[in-house]
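Input (structure):
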């Protein structure tokens, strides 16, 4: 019903303690939902014997594939209202099985919804129509292998159902990385990233998965599409653009060739505190427009910095990180720190255990823990969610002002 590992969720006492920090929350946490209470009906269709081994009708599998992981999904799960539960969940292990499943579903009025890690925050894994007899959730996570690695060209052919950690683990022996780290990395797949045009964190340069795609294979109702794998092309519209961000509406992405990078071995990070958030924004702009190219450049306002344990004195905190596979990055970090200081940033030279490093570590662990806390707060009846937007620099101060005054 909620994010991640069950064992990492705050328990009832922690939920109650968090709720007590906010006005108007419930006295005790809502109970964790149970599949047995959902009253799941028998599937409206039966799969043919030839596909039966790929399909689950287990109510727990069906419930787990009914929704994504946005706050609205968590809230609906807690209220026991998950919406339309898929009749069947299929776990293909190869592309030919995907084709067989689509062929059968297409001929029997069964809607197919592709499902990667299920971390969608836009209702992308739900069926919302009413024209189909039944719904099949097509879970790709058994197609989870790196099929080929081309070390010289720094590229790999990877199955779409590969989750973030499995993908990086298979690339590690080659000294290579995709280096795409959405916050949902642990529980989302390459196919999901492609279908949603995911953006990675710890990446101020190549941020979107689009930047890493060389070619894709997609099983569509009209046949299988495979784009030509070229290191670069200026010929006409890119066919991959059609499928990137298509949210599973045009077909099932089964695999992709992606660009890789050498694993970074030189790393350095630091944080600076700012009294004036506007000055901190100017520092971020100066850094973004310089050629220093930090791997990480993240500004926490005083509220987020306090919540993350990165600063308790009302300061905003700028977290900077540099990394490279080729050369030490200390001088780039030093230049970035100087630039930020020229905009009013306060910097305490770091060393193991020094306050600057503590702030970076505190931010990182709060960032990874946040989805679990969101779900704990949801159990207390509080709304907590991430919202993303983009604005040109001239509009950023007004955006900040508007968000704060809303
Ligand atoms: C706590 C949290 C943190 C998040 N952080 C980020 C973040 O940092 N950056 C970001 O961009 N997003 C983030 N997201 C959103 C989500 O993780 C991304 O959209 C992610 O790319 C979805 O991947 P998935 O494998 O979970 O896909 P799913 O949620 O399973 O599916 C997403 C959509 O893609 C379709 N789809 C999935 N696999 C395929 C396939 N093989 N072929 C065709 N269509 C397919 C589905 O039908 C659905 O429409 C976050 C979500 C949560 C809950």
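Output (sequence):
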């Amino acid at each position: 019903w909620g994010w991640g590992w069950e064992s990492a969720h705050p328990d009832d006492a922690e939920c109650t303690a968090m709720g007590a920090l906010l006005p108007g929350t419930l006295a005790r946490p809502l109970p964790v939902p149970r599949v047995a209470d959902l009253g799941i009906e028998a599937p409206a269709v039966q799969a043919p014997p030839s596909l039966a081994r790929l399909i689950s009708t287990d109510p727990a599998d069906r419930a787990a594939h009914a929704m994504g992981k946005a706050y609205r999904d968590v809230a609906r799960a807690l209220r026991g209202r998950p919406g339309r539960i898929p009749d069947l969940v299929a776990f293909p292990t190869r592309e030919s099985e995907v084709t067989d499943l689509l062929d059968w579903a297409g001929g029997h009025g069964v809607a197919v919804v592709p499902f990667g890690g299920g971390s969608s925050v836009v209702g992308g894994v739900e069926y919302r129509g009413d024209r189909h007899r039944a719904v099949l959730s097509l879970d790709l996570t058994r197609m989870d292998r790196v099929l080929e690695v081309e070390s010289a060209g720094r590229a790999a052919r990877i199955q779409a159902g590969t989750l973030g950690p499995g993908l990086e683990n298979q690339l590690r022996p080659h000294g290579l990385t995709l280096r795409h780290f959405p916050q949902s990395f642990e529980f989302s797949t390459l196919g999901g990233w492609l279908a949603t045009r995911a953006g990675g964190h710890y990446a101020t340069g190549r941020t979107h998965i689009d930047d890493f795609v060389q070619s894709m294979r997609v099983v569509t109702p009209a046949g299988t599409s495979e784009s030509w794998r070229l290191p670069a092309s200026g010929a006409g519209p890119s066919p991959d653009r059609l499928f990137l961000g298509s949210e599973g509406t045009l077909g099932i992405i089964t695999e992709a060739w992606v660009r890789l990078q050498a694993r970074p071995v030189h790393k350095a990070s630091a944080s600076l505190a700012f009294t004036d958030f506007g000055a901190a924004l100017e520092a971020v702009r100066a850094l973004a427009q310089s050629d220093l190219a930090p791997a990480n450049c993240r500004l926490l306002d005083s509220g987020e910095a306090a919540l993350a344990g990165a600063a308790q004195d009302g300061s905003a905190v700028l977290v900077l990180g540099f990394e490279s596979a080729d050369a030490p990055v200390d001088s780039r970090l030093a230049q970035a720190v100087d630039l930020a200081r020229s905009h009013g940033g306060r910097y305490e030279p770091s060393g193991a255990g020094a306050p600057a490093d503590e702030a970076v570590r505190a931010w990182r662990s709060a960032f990874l823990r946040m989805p679990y806390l969101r779900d704990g707060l949801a159990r207390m009846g509080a709304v907590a969610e991430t919202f993303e937007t983009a604005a040109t620099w001239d509009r950023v101060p007004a955006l900040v002002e508007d968000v704060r005054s809303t």
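Notes: Residues 3, 68-69, 113-121, 124-125, 140, 160, 182-184, 188-189, 191-193, 195-196, 198-199, 201, 247-248, 252-253, 371 surround flavin-adenine dinucleotide (CB under 6 Å). Residues 266-405 form a domain with the Alpha-Beta Plaits fold (CATH 3.30.70.3450).
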